Amino acid sequence: MKIKTSEIVISAVGPKQYPEDLLPEIAMVGRSNVGKSSTINTLLNRRKLARVSQNPGKTRTINFYIINKEFYLVDLPGYGYAKVSKTERASWGKIMETYLSTRTNLQEVVLLVDIRHEPTEDDKLMYDWIKHYGYGTIVVATKSDKISRSQQQKQFKIIREALQMNPEDKIVAISSLKKEGIDKLWGAIEDLFTA
Ligand code: GDP
């Protein structure tokens, strides 16, 4: 994918602010601190478009980035940050449910998990949720520079089993630090788009 232009259109606090042109959307979701902002910046080849967390768990907006004026990359709020209150958790759930259940132009959801760890209960719920709504899914295993290549294959297996992934769903390792796996991820996104 050649990124000609990318810009943030809106940081939406509610559905009324979602873009109305209904271009195709690809959403990104994952645990706070998993590396979602870094991955978005790396995918778009921008250093600071998405903000790398200073205040983890506090972002409760849905950020819409328009790419090449053709589609949106949608940054969904992260989950699983230990210090959020019950009320904040409920508000996260409502934002996600509204978005996932009503967004007819949403084509696929990219779920980010940390390559080093077994997916958390929240990750498992998130994967099930994406599947429940019938979206195409790619799992991105982040921070791949932290482990060796042989370890990566082992971790893929652990992640696939823990999430009970559909065999046809792809898993792609990414390192934003080393800029690795980016073309592979764009390829997987494009494959789903055109499927
Ligand atoms: P977010 O909360 O999911 O948006 O995560 P961030 O993108 O803000 O990243 C969280 C932390 O992980 C930051 O300290 C990043 O520098 C670090 N990080 C993100 N991606 C990578 C990566 O590919 N490799 C390494 N080693 N660290 C990363």
TrEMBL record:
<keyword id="KW-0479">Metal-binding</keyword>
<feature type="domain" description="EngB-type G">
    <location>
        <begin position="22"/>
        <end position="195"/>
    </location>
</feature>
<keyword id="KW-0131">Cell cycle</keyword>
<keyword id="KW-0547">Nucleotide-binding</keyword>
<comment type="similarity">
    <text>Belongs to the TRAFAC class TrmE-Era-EngA-EngB-Septin-like GTPase superfamily. EngB GTPase family.</text>
</comment>
<comment type="function">
    <text>Necessary for normal cell division and for the maintenance of normal septation.</text>
</comment>
<dbReference type="Pfam" id="PF01926">
    <property type="entry name" value="MMR_HSR1"/>
</dbReference>
<keyword id="KW-0717">Septation</keyword>
<keyword id="KW-0460">Magnesium</keyword>
<dbReference type="InterPro" id="IPR005225">
    <property type="entry name" value="Small_GTP-bd"/>
</dbReference>
<dbReference type="InterPro" id="IPR027417">
    <property type="entry name" value="P-loop_NTPase"/>
</dbReference>
<dbReference type="InterPro" id="IPR006073">
    <property type="entry name" value="GTP-bd"/>
</dbReference>
<protein>
    <recommendedName>
        <fullName>Probable GTP-binding protein EngB</fullName>
    </recommendedName>
</protein>
<keyword id="KW-0342">GTP-binding</keyword>
<dbReference type="InterPro" id="IPR019987">
    <property type="entry name" value="GTP-bd_ribosome_bio_YsxC"/>
</dbReference>
<dbReference type="InterPro" id="IPR030393">
    <property type="entry name" value="G_ENGB_dom"/>
</dbReference>
<keyword id="KW-0132">Cell division</keyword>
